[in-house]
Amino acid sequence: MEVYEGKAKKMIPLDDGKYLMEFKDDATAFDGKKKAQFKGKGWLNAQISAKIFKLLEEHGIKTHFIGIAGDNKLIVEKLEMYPIEVVVRNIVAGSLKRKLPLKEGTELKEPIVELYYKSDELGDPMINYYHAKILGVSEEEIKEMEKIALKVNEVLREYFKEKGILLVDFKLEFGKNAKGEIVLADEISPDTCRFWDAETKKSLDKDVFRFDKGDLISAYEEIYRRIMD
């Protein structure tokens, strides 16, 4: 069976049509230009993702998560993945600083939803509905993804607020299952979300690695500790 390997995970087909999603200890940034390994990162991302997927399922959001299969492995539903990333932003940070005349840390009056084409070769460019249609993704499918993404934002923003964490922004990926349903996929972890401590505004996500802000594992462990309490 063919194993699909990305920068942070491996997707291993199982005999029953499901996949084993194995989280790696690798960390990359700036389109793979910066790389490192952090022992325990894969375990943390797997456990955090499982916890969040369970939470979202409890709120009626369908995900590809089926169960935990090991320290750094999840069993997930087989999906036909869309070539689109959906990003939701609540607070100005990252690339949004270069798009709007607002200072980092400015809370947005309402969430911003952005679409990106998943392509390492092209640098994951930002796209719109017209581009998506050319890529074979209909306007109706995009609207459904955006609707789900905003519901995810509503659930997680409140959840993390109770944990003393600001959900600054995050990336989601989607796929279509055998029934033709659009399902939340990939992972939800400090690799794919921007988390700040609500009081200190300290980064608790991959920005720690991107911009040399301290110890990555300590930041991820802090997220894990708060959501498991």
Automatic annotation (TrEMBL):
Its EC number is 6.3.2.6. Pathway: Purine metabolism; IMP biosynthesis via de novo pathway; 5-amino-1-(5-phospho-D-ribosyl)imidazole-4-carboxamide from 5-amino-1-(5-phospho-D-ribosyl)imidazole-4-carboxylate: step 1/2. Keywords: ATP-binding, Ligase, Nucleotide-binding, Purine biosynthesis. Pfam families: SAICAR_synt. The keyword Transmembrane helix does not apply. Residues 3-226 form the SAICAR synthetase/ADE2 N-terminal domain. Gene3D superfamilies: ATP-grasp fold, B domain, Phosphorylase Kinase, domain 1. PROSITE patterns: SAICAR_SYNTHETASE_1, SAICAR_SYNTHETASE_2. GO terms for molecular function: ATP binding; phosphoribosylaminoimidazolesuccinocarboxamide synthase activity. This is Phosphoribosylaminoimidazole-succinocarboxamide synthase.
